[in-house]
Design goal:
This protein is mostly helical. The protein is built from nine helices and four strands. Helix content is 62%, strand content 3%. The strands form two sheets. The chain has a two-stranded antiparallel sheet. Strand 1 and strand 2 form a beta hairpin. Pfam families: Rhomboid (PF01694). It comes from Streptomyces alanosinicus.
Length: 241
């Protein structure tokens, strides 16, 4: 009897059960992250937002460089955290459901790119905190990830998210008052770079085997249409075939 798992055209075995398991992990990871953000907000509010003042990223201040990794957990007000919580959960979940370990590395990259952009280019003695840099990073990652991984579902998700939330890009350009557009832009760039750095390299695993066959002089077998096989596999996983 054959296994219920089916191979994509790139030779990577992915089953609906595995996808559901990863989605479950992503849900709990984002739930835990959001819980931490809100617990920090409670402590911050109780201390009259001293945490935001003490751990904000300030342009050119070398002592605030380590705060790049902490600032995304802090906010300036209840309205600030409320506006960030929904998008953070949605885009974070979509970024995490293909692998939690990859997601953690991506989050660090985005936090660094967003904070570094603020630290290098922000003008004035302005303290920047908030999860919006992460949101823009996850958004950029989700939109282009499917193109690098050559994964149909992720590509469709990226198209839908890009079309539905394109308005987010309006606060990643200069001129938005009271908003750190540099932090948004830095996060977006970090997400785009992360989509390439954390792309699925397993698709190239067959290259070594082909080289070995060439070295031994064996005759290569005809290859099937990988693109069509990918499409049929994804549709079958969704129960459409």
């Amino acid at each position: 009897m054959s296994s219920p798992d089916q191979n994509r055209g790139d030779g990577v075995s992915v089953s609906p059960e595995q996808m559901i398991a990863e989605a479950r992990k992503a849900f709990f990871v984002m739930f835990a992250l959001l819980a931490v953000v809100w617990l920090v907000q409670l402590a911050n509010y109780a201390d009259h937002y001293a945490l935001s003042r003490d751990y904000a990223v300030v342009s050119g201040d070398i002592f605030t460089l380590p705060d790049i990794l902490v600032a995304p957990l802090l906010h300036w007000s209840w309205a600030h955290i409320e506006s960030n919580s929904g998008p953070l959960f949605v885009f974070g979940f979509l970024a995490a459901y293909r692998g939690v370990v990859r997601f953690l590395g991506l989050s660090v990259l985005i936090a660094v790119s967003s904070g570094a952009m603020v630290w290098l280019f922000e003008r004035g003695d302005v303290g920047t905190v908030g999860a919006s840099g992460l949101i823009f990073g996850y958004f950029g990652y989700v939109v282009v990830r499917g193109l690098f991984d050559r994964h149909l579902i992720d590509t469709l998700v990226g198209v839908v998210m890009g079309a539905s939330f394109a308005y987010l890009l309006t606060v990643a350009v200069p001129g938005t008052p009271g908003v750190s557009w540099l932090g948004h832009l830095g996060g977006l760039l970090g997400g785009l770079v992360g989509a390439w750095l954390f792309r699925d390299r397993r698709a190239r695993a067959g290259t070594g085997g082909a080289a070995s066959r060439a070295a031994t002089g064996s005759t290569p077998q005809p290859r099937s249409d990988g693109t069509r096989a990918d499409l049929f596999k994804e549709l079958d996983d969704l129960g459409l075939l």
